[in-house]
Write a structure and sequence with these properties.
Layout: H1 6-14, E1 18-20, E2 47-49, H2 64-84, H3 97-118, H4 123-145, H5 153-178
Antiparallel strand pairs: 1-2
Helix pairs in contact: 2-3, 2-4, 2-5, 3-4, 4-5
């Protein structure tokens, strides 16, 4: 192995790359580096081969990137949406049963998204779509129902996170459906 390439090889292996080379002088295929003087000895090369079959998701499973985006994104969106929401316009007013039911559906969808995405199950995408849609519904319903006096930066933050997460889930669903089986 040429000096100085060991660290680079280790880093590539850690990131799932397939290594080819290094070629050495006297081995088949060893060519001098491009731009080298004619007759120069071939130098060591280290390249990457195209991703192998292990880089693709197993049949019927989500790819790691999609699973990570929705599995971490759903709880993160829920936590931030809850943290930025101000106190209700009337803190003494009872919470309507419908609002409680919608919030329970939202939290259930968030937990189901995270747990099924951790197992890379395709149904995580359906849960993620539900979680994103419920987050949008809840964000829109708060000021419309009078629960909050108006809208402010918190509402725009909730809408951006909710619609953004819904878009990520929809993109993941579209990619998963179009992936070759």
């Amino acid at each position: 192995m040429a000096e100085g390439t060991g660290d680079r090889e280790d880093a590539m292996v850690q990131h799932g790359a397939t290594l080819v080379g290094p070629e050495r002088p006297g081995q088949a295929g060893g060519q001098p580096p491009s731009g080298a003087a004619p007759g120069a000895a071939p130098g060591p090369t280290l390249g990457l081969a195209p991703p192998g079959p292990d880089a693709r998701p197993e049949r019927g499973r989500l790819d790691r990137g999609t699973a990570l985006r929705i599995g971490v994104g759903a709880p993160a969106m829920a936590v931030v949406n809850i943290l930025v929401e101000p106190l209700p316009a009337d803190p003494q007013a009872p919470v309507p049963v419908l609002a409680t039911a919608l919030f329970l559906v939202f939290i259930t969808a968030v937990v189901a998204t995270a747990t099924t995405a951790a197992r890379r199950l395709p149904r995580a995408l359906g849960w993620a779509m539900l979680a994103g849609a419920m987050a949008v519904v809840l964000a829109v319903a708060c000021p419309l129902s009078g629960h909050h006096a108006g809208v402010g930066w918190w509402w725009y933050t909730q809408m951006a996170l909710s619609t953004g997460f819904l878009a990520v889930a929809a993109r993941g669903l579209r990619q998963h459906r179009s992936a070759p089986s």
